[in-house]
Amino acid sequence: MFKPSYLSMYLIAGHQNFKNDPLASVERALAGGVTAFQLREKGSDAYRGQARIQFAREVKRICQRYHVPFIINDDIDLALTIGADGIHVGQEDMPIEEVRKVVKERMFIGVSTTSVEEALAAKAEGADYIGVGPLFATASKVDAKTPIGLEGLTTIVKAVHPLPVVAIGGIKPENAALVKASGAKGVAVISAITTAEKPDQIICAFRTHFD
Question: Which example biological process does GO assign this protein (predicted)?
């Protein structure tokens, strides 16, 4: 069962995003107040095969200890193998209706969107929530599109209401209040936490706006 509160402090990462030990870093982030974790193993250095499955299982165990939903990015086979709580897909991944046929009601489904048209389509197709961005310029994704800005976020939030929206892309504690005011249920971040010297302090700063 999906809850909009999952989106408050949504961390996205693969093992390659962390400066220090990935599992220890995930645990520290969850202990610090992360409300959802999405495993995004992408790129040439991503874990594959059995190493990918084993890492996902270990991350899932950490998420279970902290009662935090564990979401897999794109890889439906992996999500089914380990029994993830949710699956998140992009515009170039499997269509939502096909994902739903496979996962049925075992998982909730999130979709990445960058426009009103994509957001409305995701809502019509049965997404449980949508990710909207990039909101601001970001260095975390080499293929990131043009930032939509706060005005673009507000427009999408209003268009898909009451579908929950989590914003992503270049979001920092100092601009989180503006994101909240735009109607997003939370923020999704990668480098703001994975590269932080004191991630728990960053998480706490974000959570002051979305608790």
Answer: thiamine diphosphate biosynthetic process
List pLDDT tens digits, range 50-70: 999 999 999 999 999 999 999
Is the Cβ–Cβ distance between 36 and 68 less than 8 Å? yes
Question: Which residue in the list 28, 112, 123, 207 is annotated as catalytic?
Answer: 112
Q: Is 61 a catalytic residue?
A: no
Cα separation, 149 vs 9, in Å, equals 19
Q: Which CATH number fits domain 4-210: 2.40.10.10, 3.30.565.10, 3.20.20.70, 3.40.30.10?
A: 3.20.20.70
Residue 28 falls in the annotated catalytic set: no
Which of 100, 141, 172, 180 does the annotation list as catalytic? 141
Annotation says 182 is catalytic? no
